[in-house]
Amino acid sequence: MEIQEQGHTVVLASGRPTAGIEPLAEELKLKENGGYILSFNGGKITDCSTDEVIYQKTLPPELVPDLFRLARKLDIGLLSYDEDNNIITGMHYDEYIDVEKNINHLPVKQMERVEDYVDFPLNKCLGTAEPSVAAEAEKIYEEKFGDKLCISRSEPFFLEITPKGIDKAASLERFCQMTGHKREDMIACGDGFNDLSMIKFAGMGIAMGNAQEPVKKAADYITLTNDEDGVAEAIERIFNVP
User: Cβ neighbours of residue 52 under 8 Å, at least 6 residues apart?
Assistant: First the structure.
């Protein structure tokens, strides 16, 4: 709040759906302060001051059935989000779907064949599995869809499936082009695998103390962990906020 009062712009950049980020945007008063939500790993960028979606890219609809069919074949979880802000998933249910549910505070809607339900654009799908299984699933999805989609992991147990060209760095570059902000002036904080490109892209990349090792190695500075208010520590250090 204090750095916004100084005229700095806050962007909440996350793999989460927009609905999972909006409560944080409201708490931080991004509407009043001209902030932005960069959701779905950058698949959707929203100007909070106007509620306008200034950029959006969605999954090719012809690929969606194949994504869910492959998940059933591999016996992993695969979820997305509908227009009523439900998490939609098949009949495979694991603890990591609950993680996504609890992070975003969204209800889960299970069904036999998600692809029969989806007649609307999807910004992304999220696979869930034990880390070793997710790593193998990442390879299989990459082999099958890597020329058409971006396949990555945000956490060891989360498999991110987004449109080609969608990651946090590419989306922040688009953000800069659309808003006039400069990459050199950008400070990015992150902890997950999907934050790696953003950490490298920003003028200053900050890894949380609990970040994945590749993120720490790429960062200019390592702050405290999430549980120790690492973002606040970084802000105080860089902006001299008491």
Answer: 46
Low-confidence ranges of the chain (pLDDT < 50): none
What contacts 24+ positions apart, CB below 8 Å, involve 196-199?
A: 197/167, 197/168, 197/169, 197/170, 198/13, 198/167, 198/168, 198/169, 198/172
Give the DSSP letter of residue 202. Answer: S
**Region of 58 on the Ramachandran plot (φ > 0 left; ψ -120 to 50 alpha; else beta):** beta
Say if residues 91 and 112 touch (Cβ distance below 8 Å).
Answer: yes
What region does 54 belong to: left with phi over 0, alpha with psi -120 to 50, or beta?
alpha
Residues 187-215 have pLDDT tens digits of 999 999 989 999 999 999 999 999 999 99
* Token pair of 237 as six digits: 């250090």
pTM of the model: 0.91
Confidence (pLDDT) at 142: 98
In whole angstroms, what is the distance from residue 72 CA to residue 117 CA? Answer: 16
